[in-house]
Description:
The chain is an alpha+beta fold. The chain has helices at residues 29-35, 82-85, 89-92, 117-125, and strands spanning 8-9, 14-19, 22-27, 38-42, 49-50, 55-61, 65-69, 74-79, 101-105.
Amino acid sequence: MAIPAELKYTKDHEWIKMDGDVATIGITHYAQGELGDIVYVEVDTEGDTLDREETFGTVEAVKTVSDLYMPLSGEVLEVNQDLEDAPETVNSDAFGAGWMVKIRISEPSQLDDLLDAAAYEALITG
């Protein structure tokens, strides 16, 4: 299972890719595998400013519905509209076209609390 080294991770199985003060956020390959076939992604927080750990959307799979949590505080700048018509993209390309939201972070110090690839791998492999 790929765990890209250039990304940061959360214990909630989300990945974060930083570009300046903008973070692209999605769920990890491990998370999509645990969820199974994703049939619906709902994110209706575009334009909202949310705190870390607040719910920014949900992912619905055949077996379950899971909340999506903000890994960093910030304003939701963009939602991946492509997932509305093709939610299965999260299964097929979790670290690429399956991204969920882009946010402008408001607390850069929170980046220090994220996991690097090695720490995330240790988390999921036990």
